[in-house]
Specification:
CATH class of one domain: Mainly Beta
Radius of gyration: 20 Å
Strand content: 25-35%
Low-confidence stretches: 13-55
Number of helices: 4
Distance between the termini: 76 Å
Strand order of the largest sheet: 2-3-4-6-5
CATH superfamily of one domain: Nucleic acid-binding proteins
CATH topology of one domain: OB fold (Dihydrolipoamide Acetyltransferase, E2P)
Length: about 170
């Protein structure tokens, strides 16, 4: 059977479409993994036991720092920062920018950072489980807070999963 040039073109288009779809699917899966965390089936991640709603996690955090400090560590040596903080419980202090529903993750998130000349720099997206939302919903923009969660670092952003409110310094 002889194939026409049109059928070869359609075949190439189908392969192109399949490749693009596979890339899109992989990207969505990565984003959902980052946004939803990688906790184990029983609801416990590396942090140990699951704390009561609204209470900070029990185990000690690997580090307690400002959002500017974690961003500086990543800029200085991304590989070392990933090895030290990725998947670990950390406490971060910063200024509240926004409390919003992240439609991709399907849960609420708090964006914190530092203000410089009225603009937010060094942002961190903090994903909050539904049972822990109440204290976060009462925060106001510009308010200084300390949060605790499991760290996830991607190419450009820092995330905290299973975030708990530690303090309003």
């Amino acid at each position: 059977m002889i194939k026409s040039s049109r059928s070869r073109h359609i075949g190439r288009s189908a392969w192109y479409f399949a490749g693009a779809a596979a890339g899109l699917l992989a990207g969505c899966m990565l984003m959902m993994t980052i946004a939803c965390g990688n906790s184990e089936e029983d609801g416990e991640g590396k942090g140990g036991t699951k704390p009561a709603p609204g209470k900070p996690a029990g185990p000690a955090a690997v580090a307690s720092m400002t959002v500017a400090q974690i961003h500086a560590a990543i800029q200085k040596d991304r590989k070392a920062a990933n090895e030290k903080y990725q998947g670990e419980l950390v406490e971060l202090e910063g200024v509240v920018d926004e409390w919003y529903l992240n439609k991709t993750a399907g849960k609420h998130a708090l964006r914190i950072g530092e203000l410089k000349d009225g603009k937010l720099i060094n942002p961190v997206e903090c994903f909050v489980e539904p049972a822990d939302e109440k204290p976060f919903a009462q925060l106001t923009r510009g308010q200084r807070v300390k949060v605790r969660g499991t760290c996830a670092i991607d190419l450009v952003l820092v995330y905290l999963n299973d975030t708990k409110l530690v303090a309003k310094p």
